[in-house]
Design goal:
The protein has 235 residues and is an alpha/beta fold. It is built from 8 helices and 6 strands, in the order E-H-H-H-H-H-E-H-E-H-E-H-E-E. A 6-stranded parallel sheet has the order 3-2-1-4-5-6, with helices on both faces. InterPro entries: HAD-like_sf, HAD-SF_hydro_IA, HAD-SF_hydro_IA_YjjG/PynA, HAD_sf, PGP-like_dom2, Pyrimidine_5'-ntase_YjjG. Pfam families: Hydrolase.
């Protein structure tokens, strides 16, 4: 097991690592889905399952620069509506639905179990930074809603330079912003591809939060945990 005694710079992912995107998405989507009266066309449970799957697939493409932010936002709903047989009579409805969803989700306050305790622990040893592919107009508000902002010294976003994790350029940029060095920096994240492979390629140490337990082979991770509380023993 890798030692982390020499770590001086700590970066952590936001969505589904400390702020519970999955839980908050379900809450926000249920509210907006009901507002638009779509349950008469398709049960909410079927729709949210379709949406979360396609959203995850599209985010993977976005991580690798294969689609634009605008395409991701529009396509994730279009595909889910189509798959669930939801008829759209008003062409502006998907855009309005998306806007209402985003304005709702940023007010949600579910955080991942152990997130606040871990952040309090990390802050006692030094600054804590967030490195996220999420959108600038949303990520700050998520931190505030989850009451996580007080633990975070700097939020570094892919939107800052229009480059997404796992691209090494974003990790190099993040180090420049905070004045860190790759050899003494660790990345904590739940996305093996974006967070762990990206950070390892940039020469950082890595802690993979395997929240779902669905990745068997994790050679790029210096440490694999299934709960945030485990990290406190190492950092």
């Amino acid at each position: 097991m890798a030692a982390f005694d020499d770590i001086r710079t700590v970066f952590i992912d936001l969505d589904d690592t400390i702020w519970d995107f999955t839980a908050n998405s379900k809450v926000a989507m249920r509210e907006v889905y009901a507002k638009y009266g779509l349950g008469v066309q398709c049960p909410y449970e079927r729709f949210i399952e379709s949406y979360l799957k396609h959203n995850a697939d599209l985010w993977t493409l976005y991580h690798h620069g294969q689609i634009s932010k605008e395409y991701l936002i529009s396509e994730r709903f279009r595909v889910a509506f189509e798959e669930c047989g939801i008829r759209i009579d008003d062409p502006s409805m998907p855009v309005n639905f998306n806007n209402d969803y985003l304005e709702t989700i940023v007010l949600c306050d579910h955080v991942v179990d152990g997130a606040r305790h871990l952040l309090e622990h990390l802050r006692r040893r030094g600054p804590v930074y967030v490195l996220s592919n999420g959108f600038e107009n949303l990520q700050y508000r998520k931190l505030r809603s989850g009451k996580l902002d007080k633990y975070i010294d700097k939020l570094v976003l892919s939107d800052d330079i229009n480059v997404t994790k796992p691209d090494r350029r974003l990790f190099d940029y993040a180090l420049q912003v905070v004045g860190g060095e790759a050899a003494t920096t660790v990345m904590i994240g739940d996305n093996y591809d974006a967070d762990i492979l990206g950070a390892k390629n940039a020469g950082w140490r890595t802690i993979f939060f395997d929240r779902r337990g669905d990745i068997a082979d994790t050679p790029a991770a210096d440490l694999v945990v299934t709960s945030l509380s485990e990290i406190e023993s190492y950092l």
